[in-house]
Design brief:
One of its GO terms (molecular function) is hydrolase activity. The chain is an alpha/beta fold. The protein is 46% helix and 11% strand.
């Protein structure tokens, strides 16, 4: 099956958003006028990953669907902002901004002559709402979204954005070892939102170049203290190979390199293993995202904008979409109490000038409350119309410690409540939330047990 790779290409900015189309790869032929996209699978990678991570899994999922008689699927794998071949984009760098990037990319691809792709763009929500009616008149196609780790939370933000602007949800959204709720405490998430607000227009930015791009920008540092403390525990980091430890290791290796470059991809791998303590497999995976240094220099550099990646990781750890798993989607019933600020609230806070810490905290709290109310209304309305998103959560059995028992209990409770809701509805209704554990897999489920992953996800592509 032919792979079509497209690097980022500029599109006209709309209402304050300015980002090139995300770099993407079609797992198979791209849609054309003669062979339009009848069904679309969108694959989203994790932190420090790239579109290449999903190339083989996407092909196998589509092939499994074709063997079951569900042909016509196209699979689109993208690079998130600041990853691999995609641009860094503008602040705020959040989970919600990444979801907007995906929507904008789909809209741009549709406009560029890939018929059949879902309508709706990633511009400001009011622009999305303006286009919702037109998108609704377009022929709806089946859409399945699957995201690993950070990409799973982007998939949830994508589902919520589609609900906000009146677009039909995906037929299924799969989270691959990705926690719907915050990895940090609600109290910490509130402090993070206040720090973003206090930073003003540059808070949480990370920048697109210079010192900020290496993660050392003064404003960005305000919201990085906890990750740095976690990464500083070298012994624990080496043992767990946690994302915070790995990101810090990559930052150190790139910072020490002359002009940020290495003689070869193998040299980068050797540095990450020998000097930073990463496992050989993980170092090899990270080094996939290298690109040649511009002439006359020789060698390679890591393609990621690490300062922005660090901001995205911070947003991932604090964003909370657990309300999407609950019957009735009531935010007041969210585990752990009030939900912390999500991507959109963080973005509003980061752009708002404030005076003093108290004003920053108040502004962040107000923005979070408004976002929560809007999200609750959208999801409850969608549920009443039978359009609430169908969610599947896959847990890597060897990564239970990474989830924590409390998070796993909440996940099981959400699945049980969904099963009870489906049974009460009768008529063969299927549970809206499903949870599966792949026992032999760690966090990188699509690497450790690709067969098990395909077995779970591929039926979402089968005819209803």
């Amino acid at each position: 099956m032919r792979m079509v790779v497209v690097r980022a290409s500029p599109i006209a900015p709309r209402r304050g958003r300015s980002l090139a189309v995300l770099a993407h790869r079609w797992a198979g032929p791209a849609p054309t006028a003669d062979a339009p996209c009848e069904r679309l699978l969108v694959c989203l990678h994790g932190i420090l990953g790239s579109k290449a991570n999903w190339a083989s899994p996407a092909r196998q999922i589509v092939a499994a669907a074709a063997r079951a008689g569900a042909g016509g699927w196209h699979a689109l794998c993208v690079d998130h902002r600041a990853h691999a071949d995609s641009p860094a984009g503008h602040a705020p760098h959040t989970v919600d901004a990444c979801a907007a990037d995906v929507l904008e990319t789909l809209a741009a691809l549709r406009a560029a002559g890939h018929p059949g792709l879902p309508g709706g763009g990633g511009a400001a929500d009011e622009a999305l709402a303006d286009r919702a009616a037109a998108a609704g008149r377009a022929r709806a196609i089946p859409l399945v979204v699957v995201g690993h780790s950070f990409g799973g939370k982007v998939a949830l933000a994508l589902a919520e954005r589609r609900l906000r602007c009146g677009l039909a949800p995906a037929a299924d959204t799969w989270l691959v070892d990705s926690q719907p709720g915050p990895a940090a405490s609600s109290a910490y998430a509130a402090a993070y939102a206040a720090a973003l607000a206090a930073a003003g227009g540059g808070g949480g930015d990370g920048g697109g170049g210079g010192a900020a791009a290496s993660g050392s920008g003064a404003q960005c540092a305000q919201v990085h203290a906890e990750l740095e403390a976690e990464a500083a525990d070298a012994d624990a980091g080496r043992a767990s190979q946690s994302v915070a430890f790995v990101l810090a290791a990559v930052e150190r290796a790139v910072g020490r390199a002359r002009r940020g470059g290495f003689d070869s991809r193998g040299a980068l791998e050797g540095t990450l293993v020998g000097e930073e303590g990463l496992s050989p497999a993980l170092a090899q995976w990270i080094a996939q995202s290298c690109r040649p240094l511009p002439p006359p220099a020789s060698g390679v550099a890591l393609a990621h904008e690490l300062g922005v990646v660090r901001c995205l990781l911070r947003s991932y750890r604090t964003a909370d979409f657990s309300h999407l798993l609950l019957p009735g989607a009531r935010l007041a019933d969210s585990p752990g109490g009030a939900a912390p600020a999500r991507g959109g609230a963080e973005g509003d806070a980061a752009r708002r000038p404030v005076r003093g810490a108290a004003a920053a905290a108040a502004a962040a709290a107000a923005a979070a409350a408004a976002a929560e109310a809007e999200a609750e209304a959208a999801v409850e309305a969608a549920g009443a119309a039978g359009r609430a998103p169908r969610l599947g959560v896959i847990v890597g059995g060897r990564n239970r410690d990474g989830w924590g028992e409390a998070a796993l209990q909440r996940l099981r409770a959400a699945a049980a409540a969904s099963e009870a809701e489906a049974a009460a509805a009768g008529g063969g209704a299927k549970p809206r939330v499903r949870v599966a554990v792949i026992e032999g897999a760690g966090h990188n489920v699509h690497v450790d047990d690709l067969t098990g992953l395909v077995r779970l996800v591929a039926p979402s592509l089968f005819p209803a």
